[in-house]
Design a protein that fits this description.
The chain has 237 residues and is an alpha/beta fold. It starts with a strand and ends with a strand. The protein has helices at 31-40, 52-62, 92-95, 107-113, 128-138, 155-171, 179-192, 202-209, 213-219, and strands at 2-7, 21-26, 45-48, 67-73, 76-77, 99-103, 119-123, 141-146, 175-177, 231-232, 235-236. A hairpin with a 2-residue loop joins strand 10 (231-232) and strand 11 (235-236). It binds D-malate.
């Protein structure tokens, strides 16, 4: 029997919490969506970092020839970085064959915080079914970790967690869900039935105000890829 849980906000995760589990990290708007799209478009590897200074220090060590600095501050490309945190900037032309060092406000930190899990998978709406199937194949208890926003719940991540949880429950023989999973599944169902409007979500409002309407649309499109990036020894591939 598989146990499934959702952490609504990543924060600091105790090592023991993720022992012998598969963790699925979700920052649907937009970091984990960018990671999935970037790996699909041929990124060699992504190094997620917890802040811009750490990201910049990696470039100093690796050299700037094959590496690319990606990420945002307040939603906008961080000053001095090569690209921001829009999935449209993770095009094949921009990222193929490159090592991308990435720093975003919540998403990259959440990936780093999941390091103690046995397997760390990168999840989003664009790969919801694929990440769920991979989780079931791995045969361990699973925890979906929502990045959240600045230490608080972000409903976009909980909707995506619900989509992934729904698929896990469809594909696994026997799953026990916590109530947090059930809440995410309810939320996803309400979203699918158009009873909730994602435009009311604060992070969504912020991105729309910055002109990222196309990003929001892409980030909420289901199953455009089977790519399931994994995070291991500091690297997403
Ligand atoms: C984050 O990591 O906080 C987000 O991905 C921010 C964003 O939408 O760019």
């Amino acid at each position: 029997m598989m146990k499934l849980d959702v952490l609504p906000v990543a924060g600091k995760i105790h090592v023991a919490r993720l022992m012998d589990t598969t963790a699925i990290v979700v920052d649907v708007l937009r970091a984990t969506t960018c990671m999935v799209i970037g790996i699909q478009n041929g990124i060699n590897k992504i190094i997620p970092t917890s802040d811009a200074a750490e990201a910049a220090s990696f470039v100093t060590r690796l050299g700037s020839r094959d590496s690319l600095l990606a990420g945002e501050t307040g939603g906008i490309k961080t000053q001095g970085f090569d690209i921001g945190n829009s999935p449209f900037e993770f095009s094949e032309e921009a990222v193929k064959g490159r090592t991308v060092i990435m720093s975003t406000t919540n998403g990259t930190t959440a990936v780093c915080a999941a390091a103690s899990a046995d397997n760390v998978l990168i999840g989003a709406m664009v790969n919801a079914t694929a990440v769920a199937k991979r989780t079931v194949e791995l045969g361990k208890d699973a925890v979906i970790i929502c990045a959240g926003t600045d230490g608080a719940i972000s409903a976009d991540d909980m909707i995506a967690a619900g989509a992934i949880a729904e698929e896990i429950c469809k594909n696994a023989a026997d799953v026990t869900c916590t109530d947090t999973v059930t809440i995410c599944r309810w939320l996803y169902k309400a979203y699918m039935e158009k009873r909730v409007d994602i435009h009311e979500i604060n992070h969504c409002k912020k991105l729309l105000a910055l002109g990222f309407e196309k990003d929001v649309k892409l980030c909420f499109t289901r199953d455009t890829t089977d790519i399931v990036p994994t995070y291991s020894y500091g690297i997403i591939q």
